[in-house]
């Protein structure tokens, strides 16, 4: 697939995925949706990629569904094939087994902000405006937002954002725990530096398993999560990455993890 509405690049083990409709604040379209899925597939398949950053070109991250779609009068109603988390419309983002970072460089609304809930880390530039405006459009919380959001920011903040549909500034979003605030100046470079740190200093095997732990822990008791962690910890001891993790520390050098 040739990308027309996003840009994809890999530098220093980090895949940068940039929504590229700046004249429309990167508003969501069927084409952009298909291209994001392909970009994530490429990053997943590329062994040289160990972390991915999702951001937007220009002043916005993603202003939500392109109003031309909503103006047609019938919002899309996707049907997921099952209740499985990863089978949902944007479940593939959660299924990406490498660290995924959302760099919210500007305005993010509706589906644009919903996408970031699937990321492992969210950073937001000072001054950015965020909203879930469903109630103000006669719509309801889409794509599992009412399930994902309370697990990130708690039920009261979730009810506030979803029932009012109000816009919050990046600074308030940081206070809620929705995203970590960073200065607007040099924002993307700062996020990419954090991504590069993960990509070049953390074991890809370890980050993959930790992501699985975080996903399954949503449905586990503490005892179940602990027993699973014990099994995974035992499995680590026979891996190349564990041996390298110890050796590079003793040698006081940069790690050379293989992911095995």
UniProtKB/TrEMBL annotation:
One of its GO terms (molecular function) is catalytic activity. InterPro entries: ClpP/crotonase-like_dom_sf (IPR029045), ECH/Chromodomain_protein (IPR051053), Enoyl-CoA_hydra/iso (IPR001753). It comes from the Bacteria. Belongs to the enoyl-CoA hydratase/isomerase family. This is Enoyl-CoA hydratase. It comes from Acidovorax cavernicola.
